[in-house]
Amino acid sequence: MQIVKAKSYEELSKKAAMIVANQVMLKPTLSICFATGATPLGMYQELQQLREEHDIDFRKCVGFHLDEYWGIAPTHPQSYHTYLLQNVYTPLGFMLRNCHFLNSNAHNPKAEAARYEAIISKKGIDLAILGIGTNGHIAFNEPGTPKESKTRLVQLSKQTRKDNARFFGAMSKVPTHALTVGISTILRAKKIILLASGKTKAKAIQEMIEGPITPKCPASFLQLHPDVLVVVDQDAARNLTQPPLPERIGHYTIFTKYHFPKQKTILVISPHPDDSCIAVGGTIAMFATANTIHGAIMVTGHKAQIPNTTKEQRIKIRMQESNKEAAILGFTPHHLQLKYYDAPEKKESEQADKKKVARLLQQLKPDIIFLPQPQDTHPTHQYARAITLKALKQTGLQPELWNYEGPWSMFSHEQFNAVVFFPKEYFKKKLKAVAAHASQNTRTPYLLAASSLTTLRGALIPEQKLFGFGKQPVHLDPYIELYAIEQPTQKE
Ligand code: F6R
């Protein structure tokens, strides 16, 4: 998300209007979805001014609105139909045949919502102009709305009806329901600009930008969109604590809770069932909030001692533990049970294993693969890495490779080029995931090892590697996992 701060509401309106006007000048057929409410009014007025001064032509633009109160006539003075005609479509010179309205008097709200969603899907939205509710809603997607939501009839929250009583004179006059586009409808827009003004929006703005991605704050889903511009005045921005964190320091790429890959498919290669959480559990937990993550558990791990158990029982135990880990961290496990583990000397093992891994790669088409780093000397880890690279070659896929370290194979100083900093909540999940492998933790202190490595890296890396001694380190979260990222072309 890009944040544009304005000193006042007037400046916010001017800045936002310039951005919208620019988009229309670049593409005269721009398809725009308009927010209503108090916040964008100043911007709509500025747009009128800009239109007159610069002869901006909106006649070929397409207009949508985000939402409409349910059950009031389109001609009602407080309908969004009336609002858009008065504040946007007429003054800016839109052709009404290019404007699409949600009909709040339709017979069947489901059919009306489906009709509207279908038009949006067909025409597409180039630019969505949004406001934000004090409760974090966007359009009328109230707290609790899932990311997948589409256009539909919704019940307005008490907070929203209270907030909007100013337009109707009394809360009892505010409709109880509305038709609204969904979160998924909004996320499909090519570009999003969100305006917020005043201290009543400060909490929602802070949660949207700095909080976790959660239906509790529907606006937080905008963190998943690659092109969002947030224009805020000083009052709305006053709760933002986000320091200007760097995305690069020297040749190191820095990932933080504010900046990490989003909307990607990530495959984590875990040689044994517990390698994934021990090595990269914090990263998985944080990335799972905005990506689809899969784990390939390469071997069963039945050779690890679990007293008084048969081989079959050990396979079952380790599989269950690994499924527990997946649920904690938020990924889909795939148990590949590679043949090499039981028959390393057999030539057929490798052929069969390669086929299996290639099939998974073809099925998932990952954008990113996490795998043990090349210097990892454990034979099973080396095999897991090698077979993945061979299978990858066969498929022709070119994902980014994120080589990871572990307590058994730590990077030396020059070997890593990316640092993932994550906050305590994901560190806790990592430890919980490691603890889920109960059968292993009695044998070797993996919990201690995983926790020590993460905190040790957190304590030393920023000072030692990133900033140099004696420099003032930027405040970053104190838990770290390190990577050597290889771009597709550099692959072995
Ligand atoms: C309006 C809309 C709402 C408003 C939000 C803020 O079409 O979808 O999400 O943008 O409620 O409203 P104001 O700007 O009046 O505070």
Uncertain segments of ≥5 residues (pLDDT<50)? none
Task: Characterize the main sheet.
Answer: 9 strands, mixed
Question: Number of helical runs?
Answer: 15
The strand count comes to 19
- Biggest sheet: strand arrangement: 11-12-18-19-17-16-13-14-15
- Average pLDDT, to the nearest integer? 94
Apparent shape: elongated
Which structural class should the secondary elements be placed in?
alpha/beta
Strand content: 15-25%
Distance between the termini: 34 Å
What helical percentage do the residues reach?
25-40%
Rg (CA only):
26 Å
Small ligands present: fructose -6-phosphate
Write up what this structure looks like:
- This protein is an alpha/beta fold and 492 residues long.
- It is 38% helix and 18% strand.
- The chain contains 15 helices and 19 strands.
- The chain has a 9-stranded mixed β-sheet, sandwiched between helices.
- Helix 8 links the parallel strand 9 and strand 10.
- The chain is elongated, with a radius of gyration of 26 Å.
- The mean pLDDT is 94.
- Fructose -6-phosphate (F6R) binds next to loops.
